[in-house]
Design a protein that fits this description.
The complex is a heterotrimer of chains A (335), B (285) and C (336). Chain A is α/β, with parallel strands linked by helices and 335 residues long. Chain A has twelve helices and twelve strands. Chain A has an eight-stranded mixed β-sheet with strand order 6-7-8-3-9-10-12-11, sandwiched between helices. Chain A has a four-stranded antiparallel β-sheet with strand order 2-1-4-5. Chain A starts with a strand and ends with a helix. Chain B has 285 residues and is an all-alpha fold. Chain B contains eleven helices and no strands. Chain B is elongated and about 75 Å long. Chain C has 336 residues and is mainly α. Chain C has one domain: MetI-like (MetI-like fold), CATH 1.10.3720. In chain C, helix 5 packs antiparallel against helix 11 and helix 6 packs across helix 9. Classes of the chains: A alpha/beta (335), B mainly alpha (285), C mainly alpha (336). At the B-C interface, helix 5, helix 6, helix 9, helix 10 and helix 11 of B face helix 1, helix 6, helix 7, helix 11 and helix 12 of C.
Amino acid sequence: MLEVENVTTRFRSRRGVVHAVNGVSFRVGSSEIVGIVGESGCGKSATIRSVLGLIQPPGEIVGGRAVFDGTDLLAIPAGALRRLRGSEIGFVAQNPFGSLNPILSVAAQFHNLIVAHRGRLSRKQTRDMALQALQSVGISGPERVLDGYAHELSGGMAQRVVIGMATVLGPRLLVADEPTTALDMTIQRQILDLLQDLVRKRERSMILVTHDLGVVAQYCDRVVVMYAGKVIETGPTAQVFARPAHPYTQALLGSVPRRGEEIGILAGRVPSLIDYPPGCAFSNRCVHALDRCARIVPASRPVAGEDGWNVSCHLVSGDADPLSREEDVRAHRAG
Amino acid sequence: MSERVLTQPGRRRSSAMPAIVRENAPVVLGLAFIVLFLAASFFAPLPYGPTTPDPLATSQPPSALHWFGTDANGFDVFSRTIAAAQRDIPLALAGTLASLVLGIVFGLLVSTKSRWSERAIRGLDVFQAFPLVIIGTAIVTLTGNRLESVVLAIVLLNVPRFMRLIRSEALALRESRFIEAARALGASPLRILWRHILPNVMGITLAQSSIAAAHSIIVIAALSFLGVGVSPPDPSWGLMIQEGARQMIVGDWWIVVFPGFAVLVTVAAFNLVADGLQAAADASQ
Amino acid sequence: MKAIRIIGKRLLLIPISVFALVTLCFALVQIIPGDPAITVAGSYASPQEIARVRTELGLDRPWHERYLAYVGGLLQGDLGRSLFTGRPITSELARRVPATLQLITLALLVSWILGLSLGVAGAYFRGSWPDRVTRGMITVLQSVPDFLLSLLLIFVLYFMWQLAPAPVGQLGLSSFTPGPTGFLLIDTLLRGDMATFLQALHHLMLPVLSLGIVYSAYLGRVGRSSMTKAMQSRQVEFARACGLPEWRVVQYAFLEARAPILTYTAILFGALVGGASITETIFAWQGVGQWGLESILKVDIPVIQGVILVSGMVSILVYLFLDVLVMLLDPRVRYE
């Protein structure tokens, strides 16, 4: 349904070129929820914004393809991509208050959105569509919400309205960028359940960007792990979580605090996206790093012959079992 | 951690100022132009005396003899345009400096969140409702048409802007961590103002000073255009433009255009400096 | 309701502002060094003349008595008489205020169109060449004194191309007497006098253009900075993500950015009542500002006081009006 290939995006800044997205590839199948996970600043948001054509100057997409149902989103004219956004691809952003226009009523915003894609419809017609959308996201009393304004809504309500707007035209792909970070803990789960519901029931697909591994484990079929603007591991959630292949994924999973357990702390810092390192971006923090790790960029290779499970690491050889690699490393150190 | 909190951005930034100026092309360009213009007005040999008319050569268009032409009285427009900088630029700088000093003092004084400082600012808002051009002209005329009165008028127009700017910047700073730390260490309010807040508002205040200088050039030109604060035949851009205004209708454009261009370029130079300083101040924040 | 309370608070500010304004006008006589009567009458005046001016200004009475008399006169709508023409200031202002208001309203309209186009274009194309071009234009416009631009426009549009009439006032030679509103454009339309209406428009062209172009720099700057902020806001990104067309995206941004623009317009309007004075003088406009300047040079104290009072009042009222308008337009204030 969506195939992202080698997308590369840069930002020009005062201090130099920021390599925000460096040849990112992943795919989203139909009726699939894919989680993109990584620390903040790893290029998750920049990746999905590149795909959606939301990169503004001084940002610039310098290469790659993002094929959605046979059309390359990065190659079609801006107008055509605009018509896909909102109707075929819905977007849910991080901060629901920030997402809504503070001056216009909710009804007016629905109206503007719908006529932008469906042409001239009366206020009455768009209102009916909006009512339906709000009901489907579980808002009771949608009439009152429609006549209200963003600042009158609670955080959870505002995010429901945003989701309603993202889904009102029935998009087949939903892109949610940390949809619950700005919300209370209790509401986070409701919103995620709602999103899952909307996607599963109507056989849609979703990209869920998050820094919360627990969310990925619970809601996502597949996971894309990003580090310093690159995908370092991608595969079915169950497998990746059970036997993480990349040292970074291992560290990340190790750092999910469980009851009575210390948070695993990684030494070192994320490399600057301006002076990008020549080899593997993780090599300076990796406890298993080999000589070539700092020099040569590891290619993406399938793990253990599993379909759709790929990792970019010199330590993982294509056919070896990821667990046996530990022994390789130990042997390497000893020798 | 405690070291981080106590690091004063102010120290770092004030020592970084020269580097910012060095790196900043618009600032250097603007300042160089102003200094050169000022130097030329004092030291450059002028082709004709700026205050000695040639009664045989009146209203002449620009030529090899008179580069910028002559006006209706036979004054050489080029010589007068250059010489006028001698009076107009220092006057603007004096007015700006006075506004800067008073603005900083009053601005810091009202930079507390107390009730009376809120009232002081409200008072400034009311002040803004007055027709300042007319009040400025009135002050200069009624106090005897002297140069000091022109400075006074500039101060009156600019001090409220400085106060407002410094207050808003200082209020934001007061909330910040390092001021809190300084206060916790027992620094006196005056010391906090002087050592911590002032250095940090300096960058943006300097940018505002340059805007104020540009504005002052226009105000001085406007006042002398009205014949206020000048003593003919001493050259001043505004006065020259006023003298040429009548000639404009019959097509003698050069009497107005050249001093007008001098005003424009000088103001643009100050604005250029302001933009550069503003960008530098923004970047260091 | 909160809105009413806020408006009430703003209304309470009016008496304070007016009081300050009146006091300042009164104090104007006080700042004259030496004997004001001599300054006003001139150094060559006879003792009788000086004595007359002294009584006229009330300088023979103690200041608090004069202040009360001054305020008392104001309350009855009496602004005094000109020392030179002897005519009541109120009736003169009634003729001149509409001339000025008409001029600056149209000038601000031009500034809005020109300045906001520059500002919005700069913000929209931030970082690319239209941004640099508009920024350069704003900087240049900001550096031009209005009187210089007036003279240049007279040279080009009147002398060279003859597109505009000579700078001879609102109508030039015409038998039209303004009334009932005093606004020429409105009066001519009300009376169906299209020829005079067009003539008035024609004469408005140059002063409106000069003021409009010069002041568009200020609106351009404010528009640019508030639009830049709005264009980077999350709601604008979400509007784009919803696939709204770009014009609609700009509209969403503008809705968020308009409050400071409107507030600034009010400040400009107030500043222009007096600030248009030099342009008025150049075009012989017979407006408030021009009268103020002429009176200052003649030290016609009551007229100066009247002009400052009226222009101050206009800016206070316009500021209040737009301030309240901004609040009413914002649902966040309206509904709390």
